[in-house]
User: What shape does this take?
Amino acid sequence: MANVALQLSDVRKAFTGVQVLHGINLDLRAGEALGLVGENGAGKSTLMNIIGGVIAMDSGRMSLFGEPYDPRSPLSATELGIAFVHQELNLFANLTVAENLFIAGFPKTWFGAIDRRAMRRKASECIARFSLPVTPETKVESLSVGIRQMIEISRALMRNTRIMIFDEPTTSLSKREKEKLFKTINELKERGISIVYISHILEDVFRLCDRITVLRDGRIIATAPAADFSESQLIKSMVGREMTHLYPTVEKAIGSTVLLEASRISWQGIVKDVSLKIREGEIVGIYGLMGAGRTELAKVLFGVEQLDKGEVTMNGVKLARLSPEICIREQAAFITEDRFNEGLLSTKPVDDNLDLVKMADLQNRMGVVNVGERNRLNQQAIRDLQIKVSDSKRQLVNSLSGGNQQKVVFGKWVMKKPRILILDEPTRGVDVGAKFEIYTIILNLAKSGSAILIISSEIEELIGTCDRMLVMKHGVVTGDMPKSEFDREKILGLAL
Amino acid sequence: MRNPGENHERKVLWMLRDMPILPLLVGSFLLAIAFVPHFCTVYNLKNYLLQSADLLIISCGLTFVVLNGGIDFSVTSVLTLGSVLGAYIMALSPLAGSPALSIPVAILAMMAVGLLVGLVNGLSVTRLRMPSFVATLATQLIVLGLAVQFASLVSDTASIAGLPEAFFVLGGEGRYFFVPILIAFSVWLFSHWLLARTIFGKRVYAIGVNPKASFISGVPVKKTIVQLMIISGLFAGIASIVATARNQVGMPSLGDKMFLTTIASVIVGGTSTSGGFGGVGKTLLGVLFITLLNNAMNLLGVGWEVIMIVLGALIVVSAAGEYLLNHRQGRV
Assistant: This one.
């Protein structure tokens, strides 16, 4: 038998009476990469939080290299050699790269001050090893998410790490950074470090992992060598039913009226001279690598950032000034890529999130909100979008799964019956089943005549949903093609 | 899935999380009745409510700011400047001879002080992008300085006396003791209505939780912040009317000891200092509790310094309690 790094037997966990993990048995072998897949809400995060010492299990046993293992805190897990690379990054944006690398233990001089020279030297070695485009003195806040993540991995590697857990590490990486990450992960394996790799991107899981474990509703459905699974089998065991289509088919027509028009927009040297037109019922995709200026374009279009040059016309009205308030008046909606920071009041109940945009229309002259009407509209949105929530008045948004959180964001905007939708990574952190439902929502909105702009870093998603695709590179539109000309190679070529 | 016992536990936890101050208030009240001499007399209970009145008004205003994730240090200075200015108008100015004119002018002036300081605070926060902590600390110092300076210019004594009798009605003089209580209750009810029923209130909470998401959702963030800063100032102006009438003099030391009790009322009441959670319902309980503490300790002959220590400890305990309860909730 191969050397077992981490063994879990009959691990159980319940939250206030709801059983989240039903007796998990799992072996992680030394130097292997184990893929952990499952829909949101399957219990992956809970399981990883138990391993990481964030929460305690109710019953069961864990052992780490044969020793009984029951971490009291994340710190003790770290000390025993378990490192996390999270979906949400844990770096201090206001500190430098070097300071972040050594935050857990700065090199000291003999009288206890921080040894800045040693720190810089070691940080430089680390940076060189990953060939990161930074200096030790760079402030983290100025770096892209992809680079931040590489720094976080380097930080984990500087400790005596034996097991590394990656939770959706590639969602914000560019293609090149992703390749670098995969190369790094393979090197880690060779050094005998065990990897747990959690991802919704099955293609990556297949490529990277030796074995795959499927978790569904708090139970392990299957654990087998990756070669024994086909992609469709894997999806089937994740969702518990056959998924024949990844993208819904909705019959719709593209009208002649242009609802959203941008001409020669520029912003801060990141968006350069971009023009686009979207007609009613049309879905236009924007593909681009990280840093291509996609998200910035969306923010400028919706007035979150003020454009430097160019004009935006919505619904036939040329807008002299752009702000979210003004765009909403023109029946536009904006679903941001950063659900947590820009989309939701995550510590508030579902109801308080759903009415946020619409409530301006529900007030009388005194500013009193029509609560009855609000509740009716909220319930209608929950029904229409099939948001899984038991008590929308009480249940907090952050207790929902990623897919349902995203549906709440959609609900907030859809209630307003938008004619123009700007969607930035609309399915990020959303599981397979919920993705299908979100595509359905988008396509139905287009069917009802809305103009839709989808920004995504998943080519497949854009090919599956869009009528036309723009490709962006370094802030410039490098390609514009109709559905009939969609071609993976060509799109990638234009983006690289 | 859930058994009834756990449901019950959740309910208790929910109530404790929502109103941890309620059992504390009831318990302390019973203890005070049982053990504090002269507490349960008509005279003292009346006094207790009167003491609560101006604190409630000023704390309601502060609650708006704290809910929004900010702080307003200037409220007690507004109280002081309002008091000095109002007393001057009623006792020393050319209008002093005709109370029928001087009282309304004084009342308007006191409210105007609050309104103006609130507006300055609001504009500093939104236009100059100052944190409310800094902006209102500056106005606190400036306004207090103005009050002391003004008082020393117009009067040789430490306080301005000789206010018209009719004005004392607003402070609850004699059989009119219900007047300030009624004013405070109206202010509280209005605040509650604003927060619970109007779009303004919903926006205050939304911005308190996540200003960025609120902005992208079309919430007029800056306008709302200016509005709530004005409310905070205005309520401090109203409190200054009631407090001046109750003390029957205008004095530059009026707000001195008030800030700690105001902030304590809001925080101990249960409004989260990080914004977005709480409300004036909680602040009412906080005000009643803090005033009870003050009142009972005064009757027991405990000094102000001891009361300060107790208040400080209470702030720590309630902040820690908020953290622990939220933490537990976060894991659920």
In short: Chain A has two domains: 4-239, 258-495. The CA atoms of residues 165 and 196 of chain A lie 5 Å apart. Chain A touches chain B at residues 15-19, 55, 302, 304, 324-325, 327-328, 334, 336, 341-348, 352, 355-357, 359-360, 362-363, 366-369, 371, 412 (CB under 8 Å). The mean pLDDT of chain A is 87.
